[in-house]
């Protein structure tokens, strides 16, 4: 297995320096789907650079929930639903799994809101919102993953 650290940016340029560096990851292994983990990234331009380098991502775990904090002028610190759909567009065949969407007061678009926001959107069939504590079979993942 190969694990590659890839760029991530926790907020727009105006606040990114105040938050420090964050990192995403791409995992690749023969016979397994390529997996992207966004890290606490809010910037789709950063994900687009990753997508150009790793066009065969089949599963994208993206930190969503539209995290915001007042001390940073409510800047978007993780993906919101619209940006989650943009990420899905970067890998048209990938299953996109929004994670890290609940449990903190700074999430402005928690699970229910995220679900409603993507309900009628193109590409919604590739967005899988996990339920806490439940195992979920991903619909587009390779057979190797599903039968491991």
Automatic annotation (TrEMBL):
Q: Which domain of life is it from?
A: Bacteria
Name of the protein described by the UniProt record: MBL fold metallo-hydrolase
Q: Which Gene3D superfamilies match?
A: Ribonuclease Z/Hydroxyacylglutathione hydrolase-like
Provide the alphabetized UniProt keywords: Hydrolase
Q: Which InterPro entries match?
A: Metallo-B-lactamas, RibonucZ/Hydroxyglut_hydro, UPF0173_UPF0282_UlaG_hydrolase
Q: For the Metallo-beta-lactamase domain, which residue ranges apply? A: 2-100
Record keyword Hydrolase present: yes
Signal peptide per UniProt: none
Question: Under the GO molecular function aspect, what terms does this record hold?
Answer: hydrolase activity
- Top-level taxonomy: Bacteria, Bacillati, Actinomycetota, Actinomycetes, Micrococcales
